[in-house]
Amino acid sequence: MPHILVTGASGFLGQAVITALQTAHPTWPLTNLDLRPPPISQPNVTYIQADITRASEVDSAIPEANPDAIINVAGWVPNGSLRYSNSPALRAKVFATNHLGTLNVLGSAQKTTCKAFVHTSSCTVLSDDLDHDFPNMTEDMPIGRATLAYGASKAPAELAVLAANNASASFKTCALRPATIIGPGDTYGVIATMHACIANGETPWIIGSGDNMYDFVFVSNVADAHVLALENLLSATPVPGDAAGQAIFVSNQQPIYFRDFMLAVWKQFDHVPPFQLRIPTSLAWFAGLMAEVNAWVMGGRESALSRGSVRDAVGTRYASNEKARRILGYYPRVDFVDAVRLACEDYRRILNDKEKGKKS
Q1: Which of 45, 118, 176, 303 might form a disulfide with 291, Cβ 3.0–4.6 angstroms?
Q2: Domain map (residue ranges) of the chain
Q3: Which of 105, 121, 72, 107 minimizes the C-alpha distance to 246?
Q4: Per CATH, is 4-186+215-255+319-334 categorized as 3.40.50.2300?
Q5: What digits encode the pLDDT tens for the residues 221-246?
């Protein structure tokens, strides 16, 4: 039975990948390589502490574990307004983790008997180019034009992983590109950001036409896709297709108008906008610029409203999942309606726990 090492298995997606692996293959030995131990105990999983940005630590940890395959989930996602920041310090941190960290893990894996390498890339390798819309993205579209730090850091990491694919040398690689992930345990702040609009009185405003479409994916569905990709790379006769050397988009396969997504989230918290008013994109963009200027004047603080957040909010960004179905046989088990409900129920629990903490 193969020994699987998962980097970043203490995080939001990494924990879900561990659970999916244990469900599909309960006897397989698993190792969690992460900078921090898991917040919740992971029975029958060996934990190794290592910082993937430090090559010396990775070169020590991976040979010690000696895995047959690696799922490289570890990464850093800038949350909230930081997503749109172009500060040198933030970009340096993002690239150190997502690009250099991946190169360190990949390089160390190639020095061992590791046979398969599944890399968690991101849909943002394309969609973080805010100058363009991306309806029905496909894997043959060129990457490397992302303007935001996260997508810009993920693109060269993905290219390096796919370039390392060498089936003749028994080292197969592939990269999965998840859509924006939602679900219990979310540390990306998707539901939290949408919920904050209620208290801020922002729910009535519709920026632009309101007809731009996005796609999302439930965390356990992404984890399932990782297991399918791993099984595919480890198989001598992969079915239904061969994932080696491939980049593959993964979503809930249910694109939705972004405005409808927000309305669905707010409904879970018993909120309906009292009215709706469209704001021209140009006016919202100018407001974002003024908010950035004000934040800079006030000492360089990050602004929740920015030109980047406006451009992101009016963009069309969803992917075709034809390749995921054809090569991995991937179909989401958790429907998007249930995905939103479960994600919101978890965030409601967090809010209730905070409220109880204030009263105690």
Answers
A1: 303
A2: 4-186+215-255+319-334
A3: 121
A4: no
A5: 999 999 999 999 999 999 999 999 99
